[in-house]
Amino acid sequence: MGTFLEIFVVVLLALAFVGWLADRRAATQKSDVTPGLSLLPGDIKYESPSGNFRVYFPVVTSIVLSIVLTLILRLFS
């Protein structure tokens, strides 16, 4: 039961941190990229010539977040 509680606390803190980053990003009104992270090399961003359609695939950002969260969870195990 202790391990579950530790994982829960880490996930809760991570979500709070992402929420805080999103709030800071919204305050600067740069909502076109992942909250708190800039457009990393390898992330795919497409915007139609008319500007009506935008697609953002945060490939490298997802990999970086996965590695960071894996390292944090390994510290508690």
Helical element count?
2
Report strand %. 5-15%
Sheet with the most strands: spatial strand order: 1-2
One letter per element, helices H and strands E, the order comes to HEEH
| Protein structure class | mainly alpha
Major beta-sheet overview: 2 strands, antiparallel
| Low-pLDDT residue intervals, each spanning 5 or more residues | none
Number of strands: 2
Q: What is the average of the pLDDT values?
A: 75
Q: Which word captures the global form?
A: elongated
Radius of gyration: 16 Å
Proportion in helices:
55-70%
Distance between the termini: 13 Å
Number of domains as seen in the coordinates:
1
Structural descriptors:
2 helices; mainly alpha; two-stranded antiparallel ribbon; about 80 residues
In short:
With 77 residues, the chain is mainly alpha-helical.
Layout of helices and strands:
Elements: H1 2-27, E1 44-47, E2 54-57, H2 59-75
Antiparallel strand pairs: 1-2
Question: Can you describe what's shown?
Answer:
- The protein has helices at 2-27, 59-75, and strands spanning 44-47, 54-57.
- The chain has 77 residues and is mainly α.
- The chain has one domain.
- A two-stranded antiparallel sheet has the order 1-2.
- A hairpin with a 6-residue loop joins strand 1 (44-47) and strand 2 (54-57).
- The longest helix is centred in the N-terminal third of the chain and has 26 residues, at 2-27.
- The chain is elongated, with a radius of gyration of 16 Å.
- It starts with a helix and ends with a helix.
- 0% of the residues are buried.
